[in-house]
Design a protein that fits this description.
This protein has a domain of about 150 residues: Tetratricopeptide repeat domain (Serine Threonine Protein Phosphatase 5, Tetratricopeptide repeat). It has about 450 residues and is an all-alpha fold. It is about 70% helix and about 0% strand. The longest helix is centred in the C-terminal third of the chain and has 23 residues. Helix 6 packs antiparallel against helix 7. This is Tetratricopeptide repeat protein. InterPro entries: CellSynth/LPSAsmb/PSIAsmb (IPR051012), TPR-like_helical_dom_sf (IPR011990), TPR_rpt (IPR019734).
Length: about 450
């Protein structure tokens, strides 16, 4: 028996770190080298096999990596008798079941090994890995915790425990486990990523930023940490730094068209229209598979930049083949284009058609109300704006537009009422100054009326 479990230390399935969106977390890997270290027992620290078990095992141990199914059949032949197996043999058998993805059999054997030899560290570890591999994180967590309490000090065990705690909503405990894993193995990006996610969840933006910088140091050619860093910088109001980060990400070898598209949108939002247009144009040449998504953004930017002829030509192309589910978005950009070209009545018709198809479209209602107001149709403007005021996403803008409409008609009392409602939604010194001016006009108007 003198050696038996050295290859069975941790059994599981290798999974790679998949970088994803900010809210998405990648499951740290359970490596096959860990699996294969479970086939030798640790002398004086773990239970021993019986003589019969050891005699059989020494005959099949070398064939486990090469012929695992045949080796498993030979080991199972010992189970057929009436004698109970030793915890050591159950551990080896359960770990081999786990490697072959026979999870129920593995769970039965590993659980029995831990019950019969409660200080069997690696049996607890492999039982935890079994649950972890299957996504049963609440069941895996106490197994990893028990292994650590019994003396396991591997960074991976702390890291897997952290992932289980994070996945079950216990962020602060997860942070402590990830920190220990990261302290023991600072080259593992999984543990830095876990700490970063916990920091984001807690709103600790600066800490998340430092961890993302560390992830980039470890894997400078991986695109996703750069994108996450840009998002964190943007959230902190550092738009210029975020743009610089996105530009770096777009130059990486693994960056796809979606990264350049994100950069173009950020440039457009920052008012860097020429840079955004350059990137959109490049996307149309190099990534036609992105289809209408970037073409629509390109058309919108062209309208905003006043390049209306180019925008009109692109819109005609999109209207012929808008792509699945994008016809309304194309119609929205067309309505903006009509307004920008001075064809106000046609723009009104375009927005009205959108409202008819989508009665709760706040942007369409708001734009329709604004255009009706500018066209001198206050009644129709008021109808659209009243509906828009009931939609949370545009409630503030619609309320301010109603105030402007009332001011156009010298209805100072109604204007003041709408301004007060807007201030209740979002306090603003500009709105307050406007209300003060309207209040003076209202008082003057009332004094004049009282004299007559």
């Amino acid at each position: 028996m003198r050696h038996l479990l050295q290859c069975f230390a941790c059994l599981g399935i290798l999974g790679s770190l998949c970088a994803g969106p900010l809210a998405q977390k990648a499951k740290p890997a359970v490596g096959t080298t860990v699996i294969n270290s479970s086939y030798n027992l640790l002398r004086n620290r773990e239970p021993e096999m019986t003589a019969d078990e050891h005699a059989l095992y020494t005959q099949v141990v070398q064939m486990i990596p090469l012929q695992p199914e045949f080796a498993l059949q030979l080991l199972e032949s010992l189970v057929a008798d009436d004698k109970p197996e030793s915890p050591a043999f159950e551990f080896v058998l359960g770990s081999l079941y786990l490697e072959r993805q026979r999870y129920e059999d593995a769970a039965k054997r590993l659980r029995s090994a831990t019950e019969r030899f409660p200080e069997f560290v690696r049996a607890w570890l492999n039982l935890g890995i079994l649950h972890y591999t299957r996504g049963h994180f609440r069941e895996a967590e106490p197994c990893f915790a028990r292994a650590l309490a019994l003396g396991d000090r591997a960074a991976r065990t702390y890291g897997w425990l952290g992932y289980c705690l994070e996945s079950t909503g216990r962020g602060r405990l997860a942070e402590a486990a990830y920190e220990q894993a990261y302290l023991l193995d600072r080259s593992n990006v999984d543990w830095a990523a876990g700490l970063m996610r916990v920091a984001l969840e807690a709103g600790e933006w600066r800490k998340a930023e430092l961890l993302l910088e560390e992830m980039i140091r470890l894997q400078p050619a991986v695109v996703q940490p750069w994108l996450l860093l840009a998002s964190v910088q943007q959230h902190q109001g550092r738009a210029i730094e975020a743009l610089a980060t996105l530009e770096t990400a777009a130059r990486l070898e693994g960056a796809g068209g979606d990264v350049r598209l994100q950069l173009a949108r950020a440039q457009a939002a920052a008012g860097l229209r020429s840079e955004a247009l350059e990137n959109y144009a490049e996307l149309r040449r190099t990534h036609p598979a992105l289809g209408a998504e970037h073409s629509l953004a390109f058309a919108r930017s062209l309208v905003a930049a006043g390049r209306l002829d180019e925008a009109g030509g692109l819109l005609e192309e999109l209207e012929r083949n808008p792509g699945e589910g994008r016809a309304d978005v194309v119609a929205r950009v067309r309505a903006m284009w009509l307004e920008a070209t001075g064809r106000r009545n046609e723009a009104v018709v375009a927005w009205d058609k959108l409202v008819q198809r989508h009665p709760l479209d706040g942007e369409a209602l708001l734009q329709l109300g604004r255009l009706q107001r500018r066209a001198g149709r206050p009644g129709l403007a008021a109808l659209a704006l009243e509906r828009a005021m009931r939609i949370e996403t545009v409630q503030l803008e619609a309320t301010i537009e109603q105030a402007n409409l009332a001011l156009d008609q010298h209805d100072f009392a109604a204007c003041a009422g709408h301004l007060r409602a807007a201030l209740a939604l979002q306090p603003s010194p500009v709105l307050q100054a406007q209300l003060d001016r309207v209040t003076l006009l209202l008082e003057s108007h009332e004094n004049t009326a009282s004299k007559h």
